[in-house]
Design goal:
heterodimer, A: alpha/beta, 11-stranded mixed sheet, 16 helices, B: alpha+beta, two-stranded antiparallel sheet, two-stranded antiparallel ribbon, 3 helices, disordered N terminus
Chain lengths: 498, 122
């Protein structure tokens, strides 16, 4: 199973050692065998095999192959795909309000999906997720939770839980997720894979079902830093269909992974290393930082004083934006419509949304609507936007002194299924280390650096690196060094169990 | 009796130790407010959902109260983090989504449009 890195798959295909059809068949077989993990909602069997056959012809003809030629990829079900249902793991995007098979069929591919296909990657599956990307455990999916391949009684994290689990279980070498408050970085940490949240504006959001428009970013999850860099090079860059996707040129991320780090300045923010941080997570991260010192990096303690206002700020801004974005799900143009004999228009809206949305989604819509409503707007939404400025300034100031920040990705390793579902606030507080970076718009990566022991299970620990907005090259440079220092590539979960 | 998570340490001490207290929510959201917000959000809630939300939103708003600790009187709100000005494109026509494709996902269509029940002006 060691030939499952993105780099290895590309090499095997180009050399002729494997055909795209063989690799795609093998991938689909692995996905089917791992159904109990519930990491994938849909396999695009026919479309993937057709693409693979075309790619084999293309290679035979001697035409130039794209940079991801032959790589099978799963994409989070929040991303629009022409050849597969797209539901954001919600019943409201199913015709019958119940079954995934009746899921909405988009009339277009998301830009990132377009770019993957243009790079000759093979989109094989839609990955499970928390409904509308709202959650930190994949337990809010309308189609059942995904499980952590390292311990199936535990969550893979969320909201890109399926994207992380499918890569960790080696079903696919790469996946796309989305990150609004940590939804790539945290599941990457829980599942022992690499996950990147690009800078806000780095990757087009066209075709990503929107949760919070000033926070959402699409990013790659892979077993290696190199793989993530290859995917980001393909999907990043300006897009005329997304006005928030900025003109900044895409860097050489793959090359950056190998660059030495001697002389770089690393900041360790004290607020991320205080009470509430699991001891084994702390140890794994500190060991990794020590190895960077051995590589010639300069480490200093810094402060991001507004860190613990992150949860409150995020849960006002993100929910306000979500309440606006999710108003389009009203039964009129797509998805579930509940329309009875006696329905008037308002009843149709209320019943379609009442039946179609899950509990967490309703909670966030309610909170966001409240925060924006007359009489509360200034005290809540506007206040949160002001605190957001303070949080962003913390990062701006600290990045004048250091090149990157290093923190744990999550205060604990993966928690158990059911452990936090009854207390929404406790679930929110688990994202304390990932939220501030989203509010500031900076780029971040989670890299697996060790393990924690819990109830006899070995659980992955992720280290988070944060770099200034548009500085992904620096991010990958440090990430590559952390990955080499941790030397974990041989370790994989024993395999998905029932 | 309602249970709520609360911060036990102040902001300057970094990540707070979360402790469990049993007390009445300081910031309660009333059932009437919940019903009003549900109406604004066009969400039909069951009795049970409305009750749960009243408690849960109260707890969350309690946590959010801490933002009042910060003096933001001189702070500009952040509306966007990367976009400084709205990019423009040339004013030339481009291919859009064809009408039939746009209508293809709808539950009911009529006369080239989306058919919906009537509504009464409130």
């Amino acid at each position: 199973m060691s030939e499952t890195t993105v780099k290895a798959v590309i090499a095997n295909f180009r050399s002729g050692d494997a055909s795209a059809t063989e690799m795609t068949e093998a991938c689909l077989a692995r996905c089917e065998a791992a159904e109990s993990l519930n990491s994938l909602l849909h396999l695009s069997r026919e479309a993937a095999l057709a693409a693979a056959a075309n790619l084999d012809d293309k290679r035979a003809s001697g035409a130039t192959l794209g940079p991801l030629a032959g790589v099978p990829i799963a994409v989070k079900d929040a991303l629009c795909t022409l050849d597969a249902p797209t539901t954001a793991a919600s019943k409201i995007l199913t015709r019958d309000g119940q079954n995934y098979e009746t899921g909405w069929r988009p009339p277009y591919d998301a830009t990132v999906v377009d770019r993957l296909r243009a790079a000759d990657a093979i989109v094989v599956a839609k990955a499970n997720m928390d409904e509308f990307a709202m959650g930190s455990s994949n337990e809010n999916s309308a189609f059942g939770p995904a499980k952590n391949p390292w311990d199936p009684t535990r969550t893979p994290g969320g909201s890109s839980g399926g994207s992380a689990a499918s890569v960790a279980a080696e079903l696919v070498p790469a996946s796309l997720g989305s990150d609004t408050g940590g939804s790539i970085r945290q599941p990457a940490a829980f599942c022992g894979v690499v996950g990147v949240k690009p800078s806000y504006g780095r990757v087009s959001r066209y075709g990503l079902i929107a949760f919070a428009s000033s926070l959402d970013q699409v990013g790659p999850l892979c077993r290696t830093v190199d793989g993530a860099a290859r995917l980001l090079e393909v999907i990043a860059g300006p897009d005329t269909r997304d006005a928030t996707c900025v003109e900044s040129p895409v860097g050489k991320y793959v090359e950056a992974c190998q660059r030495p780090v001697a002389g770089l300045r690393v900041g360790v923010p004290r607020e991320y290393f205080s009470d509430g941080l699991d001891e084994s997570v702390r140890r794994a991260v500190e060991t990794s930082i020590q190895k960077l010192r051995d590589d010639g990096v300069e480490v200093q303690e810094v402060s991001l004083p507004h860190t613990n206002y992150g949860v409150a700020t995020y849960y006002l801004i993100a929910t306000a934006e979500a309440s606006s974005n999710l108003s389009r799900f009203d039964g009129v143009r797509f998805g579930l419509r509940v329309e009875r004999q006696d329905s008037d228009l308002v009843a149709m809206y209320e019943q379609s949304r009442g039946q179609g949305f899950g509990a967490e989604v309703k909670r966030r819509i309610m909170l966001g609507t409240y925060a924006l409503s007359t009489g509360f707007y200034d005290a809540y939404y506007r206040k949160a936007q002001q605190v957001r400025t303070l949080i962003k300034q913390d990062f701006d100031q600290v990045f004048q002194k250091v090149d990157v920040l290093i923190t744990p990705s999550s205060p604990t390793p993966a928690f158990s299924l059911g452990e936090k579902v009854d207390d929404p606030l406790q679930m929110y507080l688990a994202d304390i280390y990932t939220l501030p970076a989203s509010l500031a718009g900076v780029c971040g990566i989670s890299v697996p650096v060790g393990f924690a022991e819990a109830d006899g299970s070995q659980l992955p620990v992720g280290l988070q690196i944060l770099a200034p907005s548009m500085a992904e090259e620096t991010l990958f440079r440090v990430a590559g060094a952390c990955e080499r220092g941790a030397d974990l590539l041989g370790q994989t979960p024993s395999g998905p169990s029932a | 009796m309602s249970l709520a998570w609360a911060n036990a340490a102040s902001a300057a001490d970094g990540i707070s130790q979360m402790k469990l207290f049993a007390y009445e929510s300081v910031v309660a959201i009333s059932k009437q407010e919940v019903q009003h917000v549900a109406k604004l959000a066009r969400l039909q809630l069951s009795q049970g959902e409305a009750e749960n939300l009243t408690t849960q939103l109260g707890n969350i708003l309690d946590h959010i109260e801490q933002l009042k600790q910060l003096d933001t009187s001189d702070v500009e709100p952040t509306r966007h983090v990367a976009v400084e000005q709205m990019p423009v494109r040339p004013d030339s026509a481009r291919e859009g989504l064809p009408q039939d494709l746009a209508l293809s996902s709808a539950a009911r269509t009529s006369g080239g449009g989306f058919a919906v029940p009537g509504f009464i002006e409130e």
